[in-house]
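Researcher: For the record, we're logging two predictions in this thread. I'll number them. Prediction 1 follows.
Model: Prediction 1, sequence and structure:
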Amino acid sequence: IDSVVNSYLITHCGMMPTTSPSIGLMVSSSCTFVSSCAFPAVLELGLRVNKLGTSSVTYEVGIFEEGVEGVKAVGGFTHVFCDSVHRRPMKLLRAYREGLERLLVRTDGEGNGEVEEGEGEGEVVRHRSAKL
């Protein structure tokens, strides 16, 4: 789950892990197991943002087996973005916010908070992993 989030931050938000002025510290995490996968399954991960605050982001990741109906697990975590030197919370960098807003699920009364791949606002980004 951490890898798909960090891959997205690097690819779509301009995060440079060793030189960025902010760092995302994981302050909570969870994972709910639904059903198992076995070698040599290929997994697909769907990423979305459930909450985007001033300095924090809550992600959700669905884990799917390629070609198999239904989710295998749902997990996620919350990052608090902090100054990389002093480790104090700081406002999300503009590039991060812009990239993460693409994945934000709307819960402001418009729609039901559910998204489909490719909708734009609330878009689910799929990441294909290597074989287990």
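Researcher: Logged. Prediction 2.
Model: Prediction 2, sequence and structure:
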Amino acid sequence: MTGWVEIWGQGADDTLSGYVSNVSLGGIAVYTKEILSPGTTVLITIHFFGKQRLESVRAIRGEVVSSLKLDKNFQLGIRFLEPISKENGSALFTYLTE
């Protein structure tokens, strides 16, 4: 998947942005310039290139489960706290199940 994310962290003043590393129906791994601690509750909006156009997935609740330092960046592992379905994440659901 080629795309980027916006992440609102619990207690964070600003939105973090990052790039999608890996995504599944259960969670997402993203590269960011800033770290969020495991256990942090977040809202994630995913923007990606679908078959012919840019698509976005509405904000999905998640929890940071891992934070890995990678040179100048971090890789965050985020578990979705709600199931991804056609009803709440149709673009992502379609992308992952086709």
